[in-house]
Prior knowledge:
Blueprint: E1 3-6, E2 9-13, H1 23-29, E3 46-50, E4 53-56, E5 60-61, H2 62-66, H3 79-91, E6 95-96, H4 100-107, E7 150-153, E8 156-158, H5 164-167, H6 174-177, E9 184-185, H7 187-190, H8 194-198, E10 201-203, E11 206-207
Amino acid sequence: MSFVTIPAATYELGWRFSDRLPERAADGLSGFLRLTGPMPWSSKRRKVALAEFKIAAEAVSIAELIGNPYDLDDNVSTIEGLGNLVDERLAVNGLRLPSEDEFEAACGGSLFAWGMTIPDGVPYGSRTSFEDHRKPNAYGLTLNSNPYRTELVRCALKLGDGGCSICGGYPWPVAWFALSPCFHLLDEDIEDCFCETLEETFIRPIKR
């Protein structure tokens, strides 16, 4: 596992893009998502001072770490509980889960890891001609490139919605917003599909 260094700095994070969306994207979202104030399913706007940290360039499947999600103990039914379990396993090797702040900072701090561009199509397979979401970001991290996958951080799932925006036929560009670093899923967002969501969940450890 290779790691990249994220420098110590004060980072502006969270949803702060309502007045910066291209008109066509705003029109596509109108009537579906609230565009004033915090975006649903997104972390709040904030500034945070972070110390330097080293984070994995590639995420690994949660199945590689804890096995079949269906075999989880019945007591592990929340994202926080899962985070505690994963951190226990990671600590043996001097690793831990990133915080949401650390994850968003490592993703680059913009609307997307590649900047403000909202591509056409859908971020899955060949349903878009856009390629930058499949390339490493400015820090060298390779991130999830379709909403069916998620990444686990402390108390939230990031960079995906389990494919709801695609399978549900949500209007453009909703599926792309699931790949925004400030997007997150909390326990109330996944409810009865906890284990099903975990089947496509990945972990990007930080060195302790």
